[in-house]
């Protein structure tokens, strides 16, 4: 059985990639693959309305990220930030898929994805609206958006996020509460269909 990679292993590989080692990201994805599949499985649930299996979604996200050039301009320095990055790539892939599907059906079926780790399969917001709400939050406050993604897309705990962002747990809770309130208000306001901006 594959073990979950230690935070130090991930951080070391991220540093090596930031330093220009192209193979470090390959090794990182191989090391974290099992954990990433768990995240993808939780996000997809048991839906039959998607082309993606958890493994396919992880592989697509990894391919998307592997196409990036290594360099020191990358802000990902920790386990939490790495998982947030991959989860964001997964979300972008699912949003793109939902846009294509909606365009093909001229407003057809809505694709649902759970963004709350406690929901256990209950319906969640329209994926397109969620993607737009997160893009808006990122424009307003990138840190809050990243904290929200770590919690609701990666399923990280408060303590894990505090370590990843080098912030106190009370700050993480406060930022998460503000971010979650903003995302929920945008989703309520849009009725599940935010206007494209």
UniProtKB/TrEMBL annotation:
<dbReference type="InterPro" id="IPR013325">
    <property type="entry name" value="RNA_pol_sigma_r2"/>
</dbReference>
<dbReference type="GO" id="GO:0016987">
    <property type="term" value="F:sigma factor activity"/>
</dbReference>
<comment type="similarity">
    <text>Belongs to the sigma-70 factor family. ECF subfamily.</text>
</comment>
<dbReference type="InterPro" id="IPR053812">
    <property type="entry name" value="HTH_Sigma70_ECF-like"/>
</dbReference>
<keyword id="KW-0804">Transcription</keyword>
<dbReference type="InterPro" id="IPR039425">
    <property type="entry name" value="RNA_pol_sigma-70-like"/>
</dbReference>
<protein>
    <recommendedName>
        <fullName>RNA polymerase sigma-70 ECF-like HTH domain-containing protein</fullName>
    </recommendedName>
</protein>
<keyword id="KW-0805">Transcription regulation</keyword>
<dbReference type="GO" id="GO:0006352">
    <property type="term" value="P:DNA-templated transcription initiation"/>
</dbReference>
<feature type="domain" description="RNA polymerase sigma-70 ECF-like HTH">
    <location>
        <begin position="9"/>
        <end position="189"/>
    </location>
</feature>
<keyword id="KW-0731">Sigma factor</keyword>
<dbReference type="InterPro" id="IPR013324">
    <property type="entry name" value="RNA_pol_sigma_r3/r4-like"/>
</dbReference>
<dbReference type="Pfam" id="PF07638">
    <property type="entry name" value="Sigma70_ECF"/>
</dbReference>
<dbReference type="InterPro" id="IPR036388">
    <property type="entry name" value="WH-like_DNA-bd_sf"/>
</dbReference>
<dbReference type="InterPro" id="IPR011517">
    <property type="entry name" value="RNA_pol_sigma70_ECF-like"/>
</dbReference>
């Amino acid at each position: 059985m594959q073990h979950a990679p230690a935070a130090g292993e991930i951080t070391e590989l991220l540093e090596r990639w930031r330093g220009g080692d192209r193979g470090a990201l390959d090794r990182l994805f191989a090391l974290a693959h099992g954990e990433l599949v768990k995240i993808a499985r939780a996000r997809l649930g048991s839906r039959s309305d998607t082309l993606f299996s958890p493994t396919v979604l992880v592989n697509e996200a990894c391919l998307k990220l592997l196409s990036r050039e290594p360099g020191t301009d990358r802000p990902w320095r920790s386990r939490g930030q790495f998982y947030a990055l991959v989860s964001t790539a997964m979300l972008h892939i699912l949003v793109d898929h939902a846009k294509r599907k909606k365009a093909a059906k001229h407003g057809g079926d809505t694709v649902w994805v759970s963004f709350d780790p406690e929901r256990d399969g209950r319906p969640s917001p329209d994926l397109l609206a969620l993607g737009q709400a997160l893009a808006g939050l990122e424009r307003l406050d990138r840190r809050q958006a990243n904290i929200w993604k770590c919690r609701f897309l990666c399923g990280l705990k408060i303590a894990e996020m505090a370590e990843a962002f080098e912030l106190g747990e009370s700050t993480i809770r406060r930022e998460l509460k503000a971010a979650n309130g903003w995302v929920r208000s945008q989703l309520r306001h849009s009725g599940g269909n935010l206007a494209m901006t």
